[in-house]
Design a protein that fits this description.
The chain has 54 residues and is mainly α. It has two helices and no strands.
Length: 54
């Protein structure tokens, strides 16, 4: 690869490649119905944990 730094260690190279692979993955949608459903699912599960409420 042409953009590899010359003084990069194998661990740094692996981390850079891992971050690039994560960044290339499709992200979940932000906002709208999907986010409301996620928030509702997280909220409803806390009802069975009375020790979590103040």
């Amino acid at each position: 690869m042409a953009d590899d730094p010359a003084d990069e260690t194998p661990i740094q190279r692996a981390l850079r490649l891992k971050k690039a692979a994560i960044a290339a993955k499709p992200k979940p949608p932000r906002g709208g119905r999907f986010q409301r459903e996620q928030a509702a699912a997280a909220h409803s599960s806390s009802k069975s944990k009375p020790w979590m409420s103040r």
